[in-house]
Amino acid sequence: MLKPGAVWALGTMSGTSLDGVDAALLKTDGEAILAFGDSAYRPYAASERAVLRAALGHWPGEAGVEEAAEVVETAHAALMASLAAKADLAGFHGQTLAHDPRGRGTHQAGDGAVLAEILNLPVVWDFRSSDVELGGQGAPLAPFYHFACAKWIGATDPVAFLNLGGVGNLTWLDPAMPAPESPGACLAFDTGPANAPIDDLLRARMGAERDEGGALARSGRVEAAILDRLQDQSYFRKMPPKSLDRQDFHWLLEAVADLCDSDAAATLTAAAATSVVLGTEHFPKPVSRLLVTGGGRHNPVMMEMIAAGMDCPVDPVEAVGLDGDMLEAQAFAHLAVRVARGLPTSCPGTTGVAAAVGGGRISRPAR
Ligand SMILES: Nc1ncnc2c1ncn2[C@@H]1O[C@H](COP(=O)(O)OP(=O)(O)OP(=O)(O)O)[C@@H](O)[C@H]1O
Ligand SMILES: CC(=O)N[C@H]1[C@@H]2OC[C@@H](O2)[C@@H](O)[C@@H]1O[C@H](C)C(=O)O
């Protein structure tokens, strides 16, 4: 049993951009943030990333999945070992390889039971399956942590958190509500493609990892016809909650195939920003500010394009004292404590699940 009160949890995230693993310590009782602890990052080596990439879109038992799980477990074990001494438990998200909530389900590679043995620590994992089984999207799951962040920063009016990872996701929330699962407290959903298509473009055309600082996009021209086609996608009109697989907007890469490098980068960057702005039309009430987390906030061109479509301030979460590189890892620390305490991790407003539900499995070391 977890000791009562606030505990130190070690959360990890290996996101859809496949860049590496984030790990962060957070002191929480599952409701409030009590303290932030150390954090660490381990990039995937090019060879590891190739194994993960080869398994994208694959389901358990299919080609390359076992190899991918091994890469995920090895990378996490090494990184988590450096921070585990201070932790009472861990939250392990794993690597999403495929996500099809109304079809085959959702698939995160990596076995939390293996990590529990290696780290000699209770590990909460498989956060998304039960939400999907109960009719939810299984994503996004960070919103309950966004709610705790909003309380931590002392927000009193509705605010929104935007994560610009491989895929984008938005959380609208009203911090005046008592809990994240209170009716009307949170509305969350994936916005559309964010960095994944840009990274894929840069890798295919120039062997680069990303459009550093948005430099390539800055020098290009946005192809309006492709943005028009994007805006016509039915996904944007679908009422939230809703979620996406990393590959769902893959057609964008084919659409920019005939453009020069800079125009292609500018167009994909505008596609990410347009998806966000279209997403904000689903907000139940206007927000006082949009706080941005995830790697895309390091891309000033994407940030400027989003700000141009919004009528509230758009700032990186650092503006309110949060760490945008570690916020998702912290989220899975927070959610791990919620699971251990029997608190819900998603609700109708965040994943579309029929009622508030606590996902996640707990694996305890045998010793
Ligand atoms: N300095 C930078 N300039 C431009 N882009 C950047 C920069 N730093 C990070 N990025 C982008 O952010 C991405 C990583 O973002 P992040 O780590 O938030 O994604 P993730 O957590 O893997 O994804 P998700 O949230 O979808 O699971 C990189 O792949 C890159 O495209
Ligand atoms: C299925 C899955 O792994 N989804 C990720 C992905 O990356 C961003 C977006 O799509 C979000 O829905 C989710 O991650 C964050 C951490 C979440 O669950 O809140």
Automatic annotation (TrEMBL):
Enzyme class: transferase
Pathway info: Cell wall biogenesis; peptidoglycan recycling; Amino-sugar metabolism; 1,6-anhydro-N-acetylmuramate degradation
Source species, domain of life: Bacteria
EC number(s) from the headed UniProt entry: 2.7.1.170
GO molecular function, one term: phosphotransferase activity, alcohol group as acceptor
Alphabetized UniProt keyword annotations: ATP-binding, Carbohydrate metabolism, Kinase, Nucleotide-binding, Transferase
Pfam (any one): AnmK
Binding residues for ATP: G15, T16, S17, L18, D19, G20, V21, D22
Family that this chain belongs to: Belongs to the anhydro-N-acetylmuramic acid kinase family.
Summary of the function given for this chain in its UniProt record: Catalyzes the specific phosphorylation of 1,6-anhydro-N-acetylmuramic acid (anhMurNAc) with the simultaneous cleavage of the 1,6-anhydro ring, generating MurNAc-6-P. Is required for the utilization of anhMurNAc either imported from the medium or derived from its own cell wall murein, and thus plays a role in cell wall recycling.
Protein name, entry field: Anhydro-N-acetylmuramic acid kinase
Species per Swiss-Prot/TrEMBL record: Albidovulum denitrificans
